[in-house]
């Protein structure tokens, strides 16, 4: 069974600090769901307990603590003897298992599947997700998921057939949908970051980063953004993450995603590094700040808009990883 990433090893309900009424409601709902699952798992033939809803779907903007709440729920259940397993949605979509085979594997080891960062901007992945949810339900496995996407915004609502729309219409009746609203907590943090972004005229920004690289006596690697994209194209994602996770520092020159593929490769790497126990310090040079690298308003088409929505989370995480210096 898989556990939450190291970043969330100490995430508990007590450590969650709600900043808005919806966050307070989400905390209460997660606590109540954990209690219901524990009671259900301990029921005996002479004392029946109502089955909890098929799952908990935590949805809201980036940086509101959805993953913290799910990790807290995971820890609360495991501490009471309820078998849980943790997957990222990216890992699920990369598996070669059929939805039925995946659900069967989960059912053999856990009563609850925690699925982080569910994003359904691709119709094929969305169909795969729906089939997996149905297969889990058939096997009595509960789902706890986090997402930035409201169920009624799934792409299948617009492009799926009647059967798919019927599933979406029934979603709220079988899953407890909890909105976790509020502002991005990472943007409000004032602690020191380990990395730095130099933003401005490219020659000046890269020169400032080169000076820092020349002073760096740690295990560090310098890559142009084009070189990184070639590596991401030619090497499996896991191998690339393993390569960079061995570093103390990673320097990326001239970061400026120019296509949907560029943005997707960058966000997959950065999101993977972010949850490592000891990620490398990240340094970048760019003419524009991360928030302008891949904006929703500049994209057209369902896929590009979906990736731009994902990229908001990556920008939030970059703000947690790096200080920003404007170079004139």
CATH architectural label of the largest domain: 3-Layer(aba) Sandwich
For the record, the count of structural domains works out to 2
- Which shape, going by the Cα principal axes? elongated
Structural class: alpha/beta
Instruction: Identify the CATH homologous superfamily of the largest domain.
Output: P-loop containing nucleotide triphosphate hydrolases
The CATH topology assignment of the largest domain is Rossmann fold
Uncertain stretches: 155-161
Rounded mean pLDDT score: 87
Strand order of the largest sheet: 2-3-4-1-5
The total strand number stands at: 10
Order of helices and strands: HEHEHHEHEHHEHEHEHHEHEHE
Q: Note the main sheet.
A: 5 strands, parallel
- What's the Cα radius of gyration? 21 Å
Strand content is 15-25%
Helix content: 40-55%
- Roughly how many Å apart are the termini? 50 Å
CATH class of the largest domain: Alpha Beta
- With helices defined by DSSP (H or I, 4 residues minimum), what is the helix count? 13
Report on the structure:
This protein starts with 20 loop residues before the first helix and ends with a strand. The chain is α/β, with parallel strands linked by helices. The model is unreliable at 155-161 (pLDDT under 50). The protein has 2 domains: 6-179, P-loop containing nucleotide triphosphate hydrolases (Rossmann fold), CATH 3.40.50; 189-326, P-loop containing nucleotide triphosphate hydrolases (Rossmann fold, 3-Layer(aba) Sandwich). The chain contains 13 helices and 10 strands. The strands form 2 sheets. It has a 5-stranded parallel β-sheet, with helices on both faces. It has a 5-stranded parallel β-sheet with strand order 7-8-9-6-10. The protein has helices at residues 21-41, 66-79, 89-94, 99-109, 123-138, 156-159, 162-174, 185-188, 202-215, 225-234, 237-245, 260-274, 302-321; strands at 55-59, 84-88, 112-118, 142-147, 175-179, 195-199, 220-224, 249-253, 281-286, 322-326. 48% of the residues lie in helices and 16% in strands.
